[in-house]
Amino acid sequence: MIRTLLAEDMELVRGAIVALLAYEEDIEVVAEVDRGDHILEAARATNPDVAVIDLVMPGADGLEAARELREALPGCGVLILTAVGTPAMLKRALDARVRGFLAKDAPPAQLADAIRKVAAGGSVVDSSLAIAAMTTPDTPLTSRELDVLTAAADGSSVSEIAGSLFLAEGTVRNYLSRTRSKLSARSSIDAIRIARESGWI
After folding, report:
1. Cross-strand bridge partners of residue 28
2. Left, alpha or beta for 29 (phi > 0: left; psi -120 to 50: alpha)?
3. Tally of CB atoms within 10 A around 56
4. pLDDT of residue 85
5. Is residue 59 within 8 Å of residue 40, measured between CB atoms?
6. Which residues pair with 7 in a beta bridge?
7. Three-state DSSP class for 193?
8. Which of 13, 68, 131, 185 can bridge 180 by disulfide, Cβ–Cβ 3.0-4.6 Å?
9. Handedness of CA 73, 79, 81, 86 (dihedral sign)
10. Which one, of 85, 1, 105, lies nearest residue 48 by Cα?
């Protein structure tokens, strides 16, 4: 039996996934969470084989949670589910050493198969995204700088970014300043534009 943790903040989506996985004889959902900052605690309590994590979560994003899980429970494979399937997000997921990256609109059977592959130590990546990621130019930004810039692009304030990424506000400002410098951007808005046009966020 593949013990699976499911992290998804939308209750309807989470319930639908749980219902679909209930039909799989070899997969058992042992924990459900609706916040990214609750994933590690739930994983420690239930010791899952696979964590299926939504990329965008309140509290902490899916990639931050994946990094925490890798350090605390290296035997737990992470499968990221996302509605934001861009080459930049795939690259960030691979940097976080997740084993799977799957679009939320994938067929239900594909999710179950992906969980099985991740549990067996394999990797699952959407093929079209993988091809696009290979042709996207490398970014000069670190993964943390990309995290901050992505949050800024979503309209979050410095204090909101600091809270969601567990950083000091001064640290967030420093990341934004370094990002502008690296991209030769006139402002944070210009940096966001450059990063988007380059496919990094």
Report:
1. 3
2. beta
3. 17
4. 63
5. no
6. 33, 53
7. helix
8. 185
9. positive
10. 1
Cα distance between residue 152 and residue 40, in whole Å: 25
Distance CA 142, CA 84 (A): 20
Joined tokens for residue 42: 């739930």
Confirm if 146 and 104 have CB atoms less than 8 A apart: no
CB 125 within 8 A of CB 101: yes
Handedness of CA 67, 128, 125, 57 (dihedral sign): positive
Distance of CA 125 to the CA centre of its chain: 13
pLDDT at 39: 95
Over the chain (201 residues), the average pLDDT of each successive run of 10 is 94 92 94 93 96 87 87 92 71 81 83 94 79 67 90 90 91 94 91 83 80
Q: Which two tokens stand for residue 98?
A: 């997740």
Closest CA to 82 of 108, 104, 106, 66: 104
Query: Which tokens is 72 given?
Result: 């605390």
User: Where on the phi/psi map is residue 186: left (φ > 0), alpha (ψ -120 to 50), or beta?
Assistant: alpha
The string of pLDDT tens digits covering residues 41-79 is 999 999 999 999 998 888 888 888 888 898 999 999 999
Phi, psi of 172 (to 5 degrees): -60, -45
CB 136 within 8 A of CB 198: yes
Helix (H, G, I), strand (E, B) or coil at 33: strand
The amino acid that residue 153 corresponds to is: A
